[in-house]
Design brief:
CATH class of the largest domain: Alpha Beta
Organism: Nocardioides humi
Distance between the termini: 81 Å
Protein name: LacI family DNA-binding transcriptional regulator
InterPro entries: HTH_LacI, LacI/GalR-like_sensor, Lambda_DNA-bd_dom_sf, Peripla_BP_I
Radius of gyration: 25 Å
GO molecular function, one term: DNA binding
Structural class: alpha/beta
Keywords: DNA-binding, Transcription, Transcription regulation
Length: 339
């Protein structure tokens, strides 16, 4: 090989004593299983010796694949999405795929732009964790040409694989925990109804109240954005109207933090005066004062399963499946028996 020239696949094949097609398959994560172990190791050793790295552009032109996967999430500022990304990122990179991550802020225009960007980049598939119940028309054309998996958020009627969490069950766990501790007046801070998991959490909470008969009252407040500030505003108004309630169920941990802020500012204590349950088990929840009782979701597993599902679809064109993972209640210091 001429000095200073970038090594090519043919150089690797020549040094390893194999045909270039054999060298190519040996260096491919997906096709290496078709090559004998000794041959593959000889090719890998030759590639290391020459400092060879695959020409991804040429490979894309040859195979029609870009080895990229679009990942759409709603909000970088919420740490739960980092757990999802950790799970799917590890799985994708094990198979030599690169994630292209886009944030939507749950904004319609950002969502549309994300689909445009992923179309322009010719991604091989998409994992979408930011879909809303109003997005079916926007997604239908995209999923017709690009394999797609929904992760964490459902869109009924969209015929694609889905990896979801049973959020109805999560809402039931949260409110049942409060009822079992004697709470009969509960404030619920709900996320936007256009987001499927928030709608499901409210359904689960309502189901517990209905099973309890007239003994439990659930006072629901819906926010436009599921943030600390919005929950602080709602909780401050509820407290100003008279703290007849003894507990709060917030649809995510960020809103639970907002509720805790308002409770402290009003000169009240949690859980002595008001118990609070959050949702998602944000990594910081256990470090709050008091530590937050919450509903834990398997976000890392959701990411891994979504990536595995999409990669399987890319290889085998498997029919759509729905995988439902289960939430769990994590009891910490922010809940106690009703006063």
């Amino acid at each position: 090989m001429a000095s200073g020239r970038v090594p090519r696949l043919e150089d690797v094949a020549r040094l390893a004593g194999v045909h270039p097609s054999t060298a190519s398959r040996s260096l491919s994560q997906e096709q290496s299983g078709r090559i004998g172990a000794k041959t593959r190791e000889r090719v890998l050793a030759a590639a290391r010796e020459l400092g060879y790295t695959p020409d991804l552009t040429a490979a894309s032109l040859r195979t029609g694949r870009t080895m990229t996967i679009g990942v759409v999430i709603p909000d970088f500022s919420n740490p739960i999405w980092a757990s999802l990304l950790a799970g799917l990122g590890e799985t994708l990179q094990e198979r030599d795929y690169t994630p292209v991550i886009i944030e939507t802020k749950d904004d319609r225009r950002r969502f549309d732009r994300a689909l445009e960007i992923l179309t322009d980049r010719r991604v091989d598939g998409m994992i979408n964790a930011a879909v809303r119940l109003t997005d079916k028309k926007r997604l239908t054309a995209f999923v017709a040409r690009t394999p797609t998996v929904l992760a964490g958020r459902d869109l009924p009627g969209l015929d694609v694989p889905k990896v979801l969490v049973d959020d109805v069950r999560g809402g039931e766990l949260a409110v049942s925990h409060l009822v079992q501790r004697g709470h009969r007046s509960i404030v619920q801070i709900c996320g936007p109804g256009s987001v499927g998991p928030f709608k499901s959490r409210a359904e689960g909470a309502q189901a517990v109240v209905e099973r309890s008969g007239d003994s439990v009252a659930l006072h629901s407040h819906v926010v436009d954005q599921p943030t600390v500030d919005e929950a602080d505003r709602v909780m401050s108004a509820a407290l100003a109207a008279g703290p007849a309630f003894t507990s709060v169920f917030a649809h995510n941990d960020l809103m639970a933090i907002g509720a805790l802020q308002a409770i402290r500012r009003a000169g009240m204590r949690c859980p002595d005066d008001v118990s609070v349950v959050g949702y998602n088990d944000n990594p910081l929840s256990q470090h709050l004062a008091p530590s937050l009782t919450t509903i834990s979701l398997p976000f890392v597993q959701t990411g891994r399963t979504a990536a595995d599902t999409l990669l399987s679809k890319l290889l085998h064109n498997d029919p759509p499946v729905v995988t439902t993972l289960q939430p769990s209640l994590i009891v910490r210091d922010s809940t106690a028996a009703a006063r």
